[in-house]
Amino acid sequence: MDLSQYPALLIDKRGPIDGRKFFSRSPFYSARVLVPSVTYLVCIVLDMALLYRHWRELTSSTAYVLLALDFIMLTSWWGSTRFLRRLRTLYSEDLVAQIEAGSPIEAGSPIDIALGVAAGGITDCLLSLSGTMFLVLTYIGYHLEFLNGR
Known about the structure:
By secondary structure, this protein is an all-alpha fold. The chain has one domain. Helix content is 77%, strand content 0%. The chain is built from five helices and no strands.
């Protein structure tokens, strides 16, 4: 069955990412990766600002938790980009193999669907983690400011 004739079915089956568009260029050109990356950067700057501004009032355990949040954000972002790089390599290897065999990669091929779903899962996790970290740091910052304002 050629799924390219049924675009709605192809989108449902493929997942949120079209492999040919997503893997043909750097994932950082995609808003699905760029938005969480910028959010992570904002979170790290916010965390460092909280540490700098409230260093004297923080207990050592609170300071370690804030430093641990930075470490968690950096490792989750780095791991996600590493996995996206691996998926891009797999996609390009399959594309090269199919071109050498004389058949271009088709939308809806098993590799297109599998890698699109995997990349969609990674980017969705990246977005949810970055949003959660932003909310947590905003909450912590608000309460630190509230406690110092008393």
